[in-house]
Amino acid sequence: MATYQEFIQQNEDRDGVRFSWNLWPSSRLEATRLVVPVSCLFTPLKERPDLPPVQYEPVLCSRANCKAVLNPLCQVDFRAKIWACNFCFQRNPFPPSYAGISEMNQPAELMPQFSTIEYIVQRGPPSPLVFLYVVDTCLEEEDLQALKESLQMSLSLLPPNALVGLITFGRMVQVHELSCEGIAKSYVFRGTKDLSSKQIQEMLGLTKPGTAGPQGRPAAPQEAAASCRFLQPVHRVDMNLTDLLGELQRDPWPVPQGKRPLRSTGVALSVAVGLLEGTFPNTGARVMLFIGGPPTQGPGMVVGDELKTPIRSWHDIQKDNARHLKKATKYYEALANRSAVNGHSIDIYACALDQTGLLEMKCLSNLTGGHIVMGDSFNTSLFKQTFQRVFSKDYNGDFRMAFGGVLEVKTSRELKVCGAIGPCVSLNSKGSCVSETEMGIGGTSQWKVCSLTPSTTLGLYFEVVNQHNAPIPQGGRGAIQFVTQYQHSNTQRRIRVTTIARNWADAQSQIQHIETSFDQEAAAVLMARLGVFRAESEEGPDVLRWLDRQLIRLCQKFGQFNKEDPSSFKLSESLSLYPQFMFHLRRSPFLQVFNNSPDESSYYRHHFVTQDLTQSLIMVQPILYSYSFHGPPEPVLLDSSSILPDRILLMDTFFQLVIYHGETIAQWRKARYQEMPEYENFKQLLQAPLDDAQEILQTRFPMPRYIDTEHGGSQARFLLSKVNPSQTHNNLYAWGQETGAPILTDDVSLQVFMDHLKKLAVSSSA
Amino acid sequence: MSQQGYVAAPPYSQAQPGMGGYQAGFGSGPTQPLYGHYGGPPQTFSTQPTGMMKSPVSSAAGMPPPPVSSQYNPNIQQNGTHPQRYPSSPAAAAAAYGPPPMSQYNSTASPGPPAAQQLSNQMNAMNLSSHGPMQGQALPTSPVTHQPYQMSAPPAIGQPRMPPGPQPSSPQMAPLQSPTANMGGMIRPFSGPPPPGAGGFQQPGLGSGGPGFQQLGPEGAGQGFQQPSLTGGVPGFQQPGLGVAGPPGYPQQPGQFGGHMAGPQPGMPGAFPGGQSAMAGPPQKKLDPESIPSITQIIEEDKVARGGHVYSTNIRGQVPPLVTTDFTVQDQGNASPRFIRCTTYSLPCTADLAKQCQVPMACIIKPLASVPKDETPLYLVNHGETGPIRCNRCKAYMCPYMQFVDGGRRFQCAFCNCVNEVPVFFFQHLDHMGRRVDFYERPELSLGSCEFVATLDYCKNNKPPNPPAYIFMIDVSYTNIKSGLVKLICEELKSLLEKLPREDGAENSVIKVGFVTYNKVLHFYNVKSALAQPQMMVVSDTAEMFVPLLDGFLVNYNESKAVIYNLLDQIPDMFADTSESETVFAPVIQAGVEAFKAAECSGKLFIFQSSMPTAEAPGKLKNRDDKKLVNTEKEKLLFQPQKAVYEQLSKDCVAQGCSVDLFLFPSQYVDLATMADVPSHTGGSVHKYSNFQVETDGEHFLRDLRKEVQKSIGFDAIMRVRTSTGFRATDFFGAIHMNNTTDIEMAALDCDQALTVEFKHDDTLSEETGAFIQCALLYTNISGQRRLRIHNLSLNCSTQLSELYKNCETDSLINFFAKSAYRAILNQPLKNVREILVNQTAHMLACYRKNCASPSAASQLVLPNSMKVFPVYMNSLMKTAPLVGSTELATDDRAYHRLSVMAMGVEDTQLLLYPRLIPLHNMDMNSEALPAPVRCSEESLADQGMFLLENGHAMFLWLGQASSPELIQNVFNVPSLAHLQANVCSLPELDNQLSKKIRSTISDLLEERPNSMKLVIVRQKDKPEILFRQFLVEDKGLHGGASYMDFLCYVYREIRQLLT
C-alpha cells in the first residue's frame, strides 16, 4: 500500500469517505483516549462519472434487523450459492436471478472496485420533481424586477415535466393557480394567522369532498384537477407562468413612514409546506423561498414593523432581549420538521442589506438539505449566478440535485454509530448499531436528507464498543455500510451503497500506526463540526474551551515532549497542521460571533456543515495566493507577513474572494502602467489573479462575494481579519523589520497560540 | 274614487245637518260659516236629488260638466278644513273633479258589460246601459261598486236589481227609492225599518247615515264620523242585518246604498228621528260600506283642496297636506313635511294629557328625502374652520328658533335656554323686531332645513373621508348560475355602473367600485386599470375574513372600465360548470367591512345571495322554520334573528359605515329574519325574489337594483334628535343602530329611508313657546364630503285635547303604529300586540268621544276628523303578514314584510297599508291624469273592468271576466282573455292609445316608487287572484283578519265599553 495520503485520497475519490482515523483502535477505552472520535465525512452522492448504475435491485441480508446489502466484503460460497453477511454473519442464499454466479462470473457488487455501487430500482410510478417558488413581493422595484427575471430564467432550466408552483407573499399570502385560462386566479391567506395543514388544504380545496355533492349533478372529477391546480408541469404553464411573473407587482399595501413592510414569511412557508404535504407527500420537492427582508408579522415574525426597533443582534440575544427569537425559531423548526418528514426541502434566498431572519429560519434549510443564499440584492450577479447554479447539470444532463434521500448506516458489531452532523434529520430508527452516546443528531441509524447535491457531506461519528478485554483477532477489520436511497433528478429511485472497511489496531502496541493513519484534515473538519454543532446550543466561550481542551489532550497524547518543558514539544507530521487548523477555527465566524450578525453566523454555519472536506477546510483556513514579479503564483502563509507592497494577494475564504493589491502595485495601477504597452507584464500580473478568481467563481456554490481591493482600501479588512496577526501594533517595532503589514488587533497570533498550547500540553496539571 | 266620495259624502254632509251628529257638529262648530263652505254640500245635496233625478241628464251631459262637479262638491266639503277652495275653485274645481267623474263612470261602468261605453257616457247612459246588462247578467255577479249612479238611475233600475239581491252592490238607487227604508236599515242603525216616507228616498237611509257620521264643525275638531251604532251593539252591524230591510233580496246591498243615499238632504231632517229610533230598534243592522269613511275619498279631497298649492312652513304647528297630495313646499322656518312629519302637530302640554289620549307623539324623519325639482334644494352653509355655530350646553345647531338678545351679542338656545355668546365673525345687529339684520341672508337663520359643511372635527380620525365605495358581491353557487342570474347581473352592471350617483354638476361619480364573487369561499377581483386581465384572488379563510388586496380592488369605474368589462364578461363563464351549492354569508359581509376598513372609506355592499348559508363558516344558519310556533307564545322566535355573529357584524358595519343591501333569491326557507339582520341595522334594504326566474323576475329585479345603485345616499351617518325642554326623544325605529340612547348611527341612509322617533314628556310644555325639534344628521355625501344636515320643526302645544286631535295626522300615526307593532312582535306574542293595537285605537277614539266630541247618543261612533280613516289603516295593519298568525304564510315572507316596513317613510306605509286600486278600463284618453283610485274592496271591482293595484311592493293588473275582447286586444294583443299566457309579467308594446297609456302609467308608477314592483296579471276567478285579493284591505283577510266593517264594529264596541 502506498502512503496514507494516497490511500486517503483514493478512498475519498472512490467512496467519498474521509475518516479521522484510518486504523481503528480496537477497544472502547483506547478509542476514547484518542480524543478525536472515530468518525468520517461522507459524501453520499459524490460524483462518480466512472460509476454506471446497475439496473437491478440490491440483494439484502435476510435477517430482519440487518438487511445489509451484498458487498465485496462478504464471503461468498459460489457453489452453494450462498453469501455470508459481513455485518451479522447471516448466511443468505442468492436470489434465483443469481443462479449463473461463479467465481469467474461475479456480479458488480462483489467486485472490490465497486465498494460503492448504485442501483436503479423500480418503486411505484416515477414521481415528478416539484419546484415551488415562494416569493416575497415586499421588495424594491429594481430587486423585484431582477428576481422576476431570474425566476423566469429558471423556468427554462427546469425539465419540462417538472411541476412548478408559485406562492407570493407580502402582507397577504397568495397561492397562484396555474391551470386556469383567462383570469389569473390565486388563493389568498391572511398573513397573520397560523393555519394547520388541514386547514390550508381545505382552503385550497385540496381535500376530497367529504360528502358527495347533491345528487343529480355530475360529481366533477375534482381530485385530479385540484391537486394539480397549483402545481403544473412546466411545459404546460410555461407561458402562463411567465406572464404571471411578469405581472407580479410589489405588495400593494401601503407602507407608512417609519414602518417596515408587513411580510408574512411564516404563513407563506406554512402554506407552501401544507400545499406540498397535501399533494405530494414523500416526493422530491423544493420550496424556494426568496426574501428581501425579515418576517414582520404573523407566526414566525422576527421583528415588528416599527423601524425604530432594530432587528435582534448577538448582543440582544445574549441579553435575552430578542423578543421573537424563540417563538419564531420554534415555529420554523416545526415547519422544517414537517417538511423533512415529507421529503421536501426548503431553500432560502435572502437578499437584503439588513438581516432577514436567517437565524430563526436556518433550520428550514438545515433540516431539509436546502440551500441558503445570502446577498445584498437580487439584482447582483452573486444572486443571479448562484441561483442559476442551483439548476446546474452534470455530465449526463441531469440536475446536480437529488431528493428525498435516506441515509442508513450499518456497522459491524464492534462499532456503533453515535450520530451525524449535516443537513439531515433523524428518522429515529433504533437498531443494534445505534450507540447510546449521541454526537450530533444521534439515536438513530437512519437519517433523512431531503435534498442532496454531489457535494453534500455529512459528518458521521462512531463509537468503538469492543471491550478492552475482548481483543479483536489480528487482521480483523471493521466495516461500515452506507446505504443511500434517493430520488434522482431524472425521477428514478436509486440506491447507492458504499461499504468500507478499516483495520483494527491495538492502541498500545500500534500507536504509531494509528498516529500515522490520522487524517488531520478530516479530523479538523469533523471536530469543527462538533464544535459548530455545540455552538448552536451553547455559549461561544464554552465551545472554545471545549475545543481547546480537546486540542490539548490530543497534543498530550501524541506530542513528544519532556514534562514541563514546552520547548521540547514536537508533533509528528501527521498531526503537525492540526493545531493550526484549530487556531483558525477559533477565529472563524463559525465560532466567533463578534462582527457578524446572527444571520451571517447562521449562514456560515449552514454551509460549513454541508460542504465537503476541501471546501470546509477553506472555510476554516482560507487560502492565500501571492502574485508577484518574483516568480509564479504561489500559495503563501495566511499571515500578516505575507502582505507585501509588491504583491497581489488572492484570498479565498469560500464565502469571499478577495484580491488585494499591495501598496506599490496599487500605486502602479493607479498610475495606469497597465495601459502602457511597455508594461504589458504588469498588465498580465494584474490579470493573473482575476483569471484565477474567475475559475473559482465558476464552480463555487454559492457564489462567493467578490472583492477587489488594495492596500489601505476599506475592503481590505476582509483580508486583514483573516490573516494570522503575526505583526500587530504591539510587536511591530520589536521585530524591527519591515515585512508584511501590521494588523491592528489584540487577537493572539498563531505563535502565541502555539506557545500556550505547548505550555499546556507539557504541563502535568492540565 | 269620486264615486265613493260622492256616495259617502252625502251621508256625511247629511249627517251633519240631519243627524244627531249633525247637530252636534253644527252646534259646536261655527257651523254656519262653515256651512258656507258646506254650503256647497247643501247645494250639492239639493243638486243631487236633482242630479239623481236628472242624473240621466247630467250624466248624459257627461261628468265634466258643471253639474257633476257640483255633485262632487260634497265630497270635497267633507274635508271641511279647506273650505276656501271650494268657492274659488269653480274652474279649478271642475278640473279637479274631472277625475272623480271618471271613477264614477267606472263604477257605473262596471256593472255594465261593455265598459267602454259606459266610460264615455254619463250617468244616464250608464244607468241605462248598465241596467240593461245589470239586470240580465251583471247583477248577479257584479260587485258592489256602482250604486251611486244607479241611484240616479230611476226606479227601473232599482227593481231589476232588487231581485238579484244577493249582489248587494248592483242594486242602486232603485232599491233606494222604494226600499229605501231597507237600505237604511241595511245601513247600520238608522233606517232600520224606517218609514219610507221620508222623501221616499234614502232619506231614511241618510238619516240613518247621518247619525252614523257626524261631521263636526268643519273647522271643528275634525269631522265626527259617527258610525251609527246600533244601540244593540255591534252584532247589529253585521251583514245579517239585512233581514231588516224590506226587500228581502237585498241583504248585502244595504251598506253600499246607504252611502249613496246620502244625497238627499231633504230626507235628513226627517231621517233623524227615524234614524235614531231606528237605531235603537233594530238590533241587527248593517253598516253601509260606502258610508263609512273612505280613504280614497279623503285623499281625493285633500288633493283637491291642497294639491298643487304652495305650502309655506311659516306657521308653527301647521298640519301639512296628506302625503298623497302633490304640493310645493316653501321653507320659511320649518322643515318641509318631506323631511319631517309628526303624528300630531299640537302636543299635549302634560304627560297626563298625553297619557289620557294615548295618541303617540312621534315624528317620522326622512333626513335625505329627495326634493322635487321645483323646490329649492337645501342651502349649503360654510362657516370655514370654525364649523357650524352651536349652543354651548346642548350642542344644538344654529336655527331660526334661536333668540338673539343683548343687541345681537348673545343668543338664547331654543332647546335648552342657555345663553351663548355670538362668535365675533357671526355678529350682526338686530332690527327693531329683534331680528338679525342678515336674517334672510343666512339660511341657518331663516330656513327650517339647511346643510353645513362639516369641519375635520366631525370626521373620523380628524381626516377628511375618502369617497365611498360600492362593492358588488355575487353568489356564484349552482343555483344562481343555473338560473342565469349571475349573467344577468354582470350584463346589467356594465351599463348600470355608468350611472353611479354623483354630486350635482360633477362629471363623473367619485364612488369606487369593487367586485366579489363567492360560494363557499370568496373571490376578490383585482381590476386595476393597469392590468390587461382582471385577477382573481380566492380567500377561503371564512373563519377570519380579510381583504386580500387594497390597490386594485376598489377602483374608479371610468378608469378601469376595460378591465371591469372583461371581468363581467368572464364571471358567468368561469363558474358555468360549478357544482358548488353551499354558500357563506356572514364572511361576505365581513369581507366588505374589512375592505372599507382597509380603504378607510364607507360604502355599500350589494349582496346577491341565493340560499341559506349552510357552509361551515361563521354565521352558518340552520333551518329553524317551525310552523308549529305560529299562534303560540314562541311565535316571536320566528322573527328574532339568530344572534351572535350577525349582531357583532352589524356593529362592525355601522362602525365602518358599511351598509348592506341584500338581494335574496331563495327557493325555500332562508331564515330571512337572520339574514336581513345586518341590512336592517345598517340602513340597507332587503329585496326578495322567491323562485327567481330570469324571464319573469329579471326585469323586476334589475329595476330594484338600478334604483338601489342610483339612489342618492349618505354614508357613515350619525343623527341626533334634540328637543326643546319638556319632552325628549325616547324611542327610535328604522334601519339604524344605537350604541347609546341618543345617538342614532346609520351605516348609510338613502333618500327613501325614514326614522320614526317617539317622544315622551319629561316636563310640562308651554302653550306659548311651543315645542321645537331639531334633527341633526352628520353624514358623508356621495362625493365623499362630510356634511351636517339640520332639520328644524316647531310644534304647538295645547292643553286642549281637541286641539291635539284636530292636528293629528293619520298617515304618520299609522307609520308609528306599524313600526312599533312590528318591533313589539319580537318580544311579545302576536296576540298581545294585536290586542294592544286595538285597545289603543279604541282608547284614542274613546278619549276623543269623551272629551272632544259634542254630546251625542252614546250609540254613535264619533271619529275625529283627522283620524276618520285611521281604523281602515289599523285594520289593514292588523291584517299584514307579520301580524296575522297564519300558518299559510311563509315565515320568510312575514319577516321580510316586517323588516321592509321598519325604515319606511309615511308615504310608503300609507300606500302599503292602503294600496291604490286604479280602474283602467274607462280612462279618459285625453287626460294626463290617472283615474282616481277606488276603494280597496272587492265591491269596487267590475266584471268587465281592468284594474291596476299597487302598494309599493306588488303590482297587479286585474282583468274582469267580462273584459271586452277589444280591450284585451288593445292591451295584450291577444284576442281574448283565454289566450292570455299565464305568466305574462309585462305588457306588449302596442301602438294604440290605451296600451300606451297603461304602459306609461305603469312605468311612471315604477319610476316613482322606491322599490320596483313585479307586475302580475290576474284574471278574475283565476287561481292567482287569491294573491290579488289579499290586497283588498277593506275586505275580510284571506288569512284571517276582519273586514273594515267588522273591525269598525269591533272598535266601536270597545269604545263603548271604555265609555261606560
UniProtKB/TrEMBL annotation, chain A:
It is found in: Cytoplasmic vesicle, COPII-coated vesicle membrane; Endoplasmic reticulum membrane; Cytoplasm, Cytosol. InterPro entries: ADF-H/Gelsolin-like_dom_sf, Beta-sandwich_Sec23_24, Gelsolin-like_dom, Gelsolin-like_dom_sf, Sec23, Sec23/24_helical_dom, Sec23/24_helical_dom_sf, Sec23/24_trunk_dom. Residues 519-617 form the Sec23/Sec24 helical domain. Residues 58-98 form the Zinc finger Sec23/Sec24-type domain. It is a peripheral membrane protein. Keywords: Cytoplasm, Cytoplasmic vesicle, Endoplasmic reticulum, ER-Golgi transport, Membrane, Metal-binding, Protein transport, Transport, Zinc. GO terms for molecular function: GTPase activator activity; zinc ion binding. GO terms for cellular component: COPII vesicle coat; cytosol; endoplasmic reticulum exit site; endoplasmic reticulum membrane. GO terms for biological process: COPII-coated vesicle cargo loading; intracellular protein transport. It holds the Pfam family Sec23_BS. This is Protein transport protein SEC23.
From TrEMBL, chain B:
Residues 714-798 form the Sec23/Sec24 beta-sandwich domain. Residues 117-150 have a biased composition (Polar residues). Residues 75-249 are annotated as: Disordered. InterPro entries: ADF-H/Gelsolin-like_dom_sf, Beta-sandwich_Sec23_24, Gelsolin-like_dom, Gelsolin-like_dom_sf, Sec23/24_helical_dom, Sec23/24_helical_dom_sf, Sec23/24_trunk_dom, SEC23_SEC24_subfamily. It is a peripheral membrane protein. Pfam families: Gelsolin, Sec23_BS, Sec23_helical, Sec23_trunk, zf-Sec23_Sec24. It is found in: Cytoplasm, Cytosol; Cytoplasmic vesicle, COPII-coated vesicle membrane; Endoplasmic reticulum membrane. Its main location: cytoplasm. Keywords: Cytoplasmic vesicle, Protein transport, Transport. Residues 198-212 have a biased composition (Gly residues). The keyword Protein transport applies. SUPFAM superfamilies: beta-sandwich domain of Sec23/24, C-terminal, gelsolin-like domain of Sec23/24, Helical domain of Sec23/24, vWA-like. Residues 810-909 form the Sec23/Sec24 helical domain. Residues 86-97 have a biased composition (Low complexity). GO terms for biological process: cartilage morphogenesis; COPII-coated vesicle cargo loading; embryonic viscerocranium morphogenesis; extracellular matrix constituent secretion; intracellular protein transport. It comes from the Eukaryota. GO terms for molecular function: SNARE binding; zinc ion binding. Residues 930-999 form the Gelsolin-like domain. GO terms for cellular component: COPII vesicle coat; cytosol; endoplasmic reticulum exit site; endoplasmic reticulum membrane. Residues 465-708 form the Sec23/Sec24 trunk domain. Gene3D superfamilies: beta-sandwich domain of Sec23/24, Sec23/Sec24 helical domain, Severin, von Willebrand factor, type A domain, Zn-finger domain of Sec23/24. Residues 388-424 form the Zinc finger Sec23/Sec24-type domain. The keyword Transport applies. Belongs to the SEC23/SEC24 family. SEC24 subfamily. PANTHER family: PROTEIN TRANSPORT PROTEIN SEC24D, SEC24-RELATED PROTEIN. This is SEC24 homolog D, COPII coat complex component. It comes from Cynoglossus semilaevis (Tongue sole). The lineage of its organism: Eukaryota, Metazoa, Chordata, Craniata, Vertebrata.
